[in-house]
Specification:
two-stranded antiparallel ribbon; 7 helices; disordered C terminus
Length: about 160
């Protein structure tokens, strides 16, 4: 993000590989995201959940949600409802695109599986930025680039 600023958008999706330990943090991050506090919750989950004795329990997630300043009534409602469906839907969607584990990354539809050195990400990002710049220079609007060159291309490759 520091290197690419407004040219890079990061979208997180949940793909729970180990449901016994990862479901509660995934639900908590989903609920936090619904309140616009995903980054705060993600940080707390890593620092005071995973790195702190790997306490990823539902009760610790609730403690962290309070610390992140979430509306707890809404948090509990989302954990029990909308976020359950979100986790299920995101797993199904990602499976369609070949995801079978984590971490998994897509850069304008290009799949990178597993942890990678930052230079590998930058190489693909730079290649995709070059393609986007060329398309935009040839008349494609910035607003239409993603849908025209990434989504349609990706959907066609699934057929």
């Amino acid at each position: 993000m520091k290197d690419y600023k407004d040219d890079l958008k990061i979208v997180y999706k949940n793909y729970v590989v180990h449901p016994n330990v990862a479901t509660d943090p995934a639900l908590a991050s989903c609920a936090a995201g619904k309140q616009g506090k995903f980054p705060e919750m993600e940080h707390l989950i890593w620092e005071k959940g995973y790195n702190a004795n790997r306490n990823l329990s539902a009760s610790n997630m609730e403690t962290l949600a309070k610390e992140a300043g979430l509306n707890m009534d809404q948090y509990k409602k989302d954990i029990a409802g909308a976020c359950q469906e979100t986790l299920k839907t995101e797993r199904q969607e990602l499976s369609k695109f070949g995801v079978s584990g984590t971490p998994a990354f897509f850069i304008n539809g290009r799949f990178l599986s597993g942890a990678r050195p930052i230079d590998q990400f930058k190489k693909v990002i730079d290649e995709e930025l070059k393609k986007a710049s060329e398309a935009i220079a040839n008349g494609t609007s910035v607003e239409n680039y993603y849908s025209e060159y990434v989504e349609k291309k990706g959907m066609n490759s699934l057929k």
